[in-house]
């Protein structure tokens, strides 16, 4: 009996080794073709959008490994980006709206489909932690604006100024021309979305952002909207978005990626199909000139992928096989 178990164990490890070797040197498109990696992932696994996802993954991984609940891991993980003034697209130090106000959006979702969200929240450094409190301590899913702030304060969060000198300078520079035409991959990007598959095989996710730079005061993007910026179904998989929120909301982006995985598509195929749909729907749209949208997705087997409209999108992956590293996402458009 035990020798049979040993054999199975060795055979599995062998598969991991071979698949890992086979993946080396392949393009993102080949790597995420959905063929190679189905049986190779061990749990847990965490994926997060953009390079700042590396530090976020590192923290979330520590928590998952020390058996902390997955939502705590997500809050601590993306909380690293929220607190970092050099990440000018999330939390403290985020680029402001056109009136110079930093307004934040975030949401969180667990394997029971419970979720919490805050939007248009000002003065609180960790909106993801407030979103978790909405999930836990209210009968609601979303709180917005002053009500969200009032709730955060009642939960013991501290109000502080989130506009750093660096972000204020960039805002002043922007005011010189005041044109709303977000710079691709810079001003309409870098939301941190994190998806985790824990050791028990349960999915969870979180998303937090200061939203599109120079947005109108009061504008809410996709990131706090369950189904748009983030969605998961614990029977199927999870997906999250980054990029121009308006385009993601118009197409219910993340929910659609999960639905395609339910129908049997790999994370790569699902992300690609929804990115192509968004691209096609916007071909003649006024937003097209600065349209960028990227998705990350993971399924119950731990297969993951990223795909975007324009090149330049990448995401951080942490698993037991290869540790924490960046993966580049394939894109619909090849060149700018
Ligand atoms: C939004 N999706 O508010 C977000 C933008 C983003 O870093 O990805 N920002 O539209």
TrEMBL record:
Coiled coil: none annotated. InterPro entries: Ntn_hydrolases_N, Peptidase_T2. Pfam families: Asparaginase_2. CDD domains: Glycosylasparaginase. PANTHER family: L-ASPARAGINASE (PTHR10188), N(4)-(BETA-N-ACETYLGLUCOSAMINYL)-L-ASPARAGINASE (PTHR10188:SF6). This is N(4)-(Beta-N-acetylglucosaminyl)-L-asparaginase.
């Amino acid at each position: 009996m035990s020798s049979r178990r040993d054999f199975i164990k060795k055979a599995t490890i062998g598969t991991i080794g071979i698949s890992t070797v086979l993946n080396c040197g392949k393009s993102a498109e080949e790597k995420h073709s959905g063929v190679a990696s189905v049986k190779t992932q061990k749990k847990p696994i965490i994926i997060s959008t953009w390079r700042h996802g590396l530090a976020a993954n590192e923290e979330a991984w520590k928590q998952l490994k020390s058996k902390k609940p997955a939502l705590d891991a997500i809050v601590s993980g993306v909380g690293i980006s929220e607190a970092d003034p050099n990440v000018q697209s999330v939390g403290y130090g985020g680029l402001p709206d056109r009136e110079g106000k930093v307004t934040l959006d975030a949401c969180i979702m667990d394997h029971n489909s419970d979720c919490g969200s805050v939007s248009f929240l000002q003065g609180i450094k960790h909106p993801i932690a407030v979103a978790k409190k909405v999930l836990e301590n209210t009968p609601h899913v979303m709180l917005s604006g002053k009500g969200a702030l009032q709730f955060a304060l009642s939960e013991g969060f501290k109000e502080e100024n989130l506009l750093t000198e660096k972000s204020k300078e960039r805002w002043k520079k922007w005011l010189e021309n005041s044109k709303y035409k977000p710079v691709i991959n810079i001003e309409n990007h870098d939301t941190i979305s994190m998806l985790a598959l824990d050791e028990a095989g349960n999915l969870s996710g979180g998303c937090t952002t200061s939203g599109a730079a120079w947005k109108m005061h009061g504008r809410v993007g996709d990131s706090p909207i369950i189904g748009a910026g983030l969605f998961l179904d614990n029977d199927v998989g999870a997906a999250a978005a980054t990029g121009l929120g308006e385009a993601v909301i118009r197409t219910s982006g993340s929910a659609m990626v999960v639905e395609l995985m339910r129908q049997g598509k790999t994370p790569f195929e699902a992300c690609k199909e929804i990115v192509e749909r968004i691209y096609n729907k916007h071909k003649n749209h006024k937003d097209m000139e600065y349209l960028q949208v990227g998705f990350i997705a993971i399924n119950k087997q731990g297969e993951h992928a990223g795909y975007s409209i324009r090149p330049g999108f990448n995401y951080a992956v942490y698993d037991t096989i290869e540790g924490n590293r960046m993966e580049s996402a394939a894109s619909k458009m090849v060149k700018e």
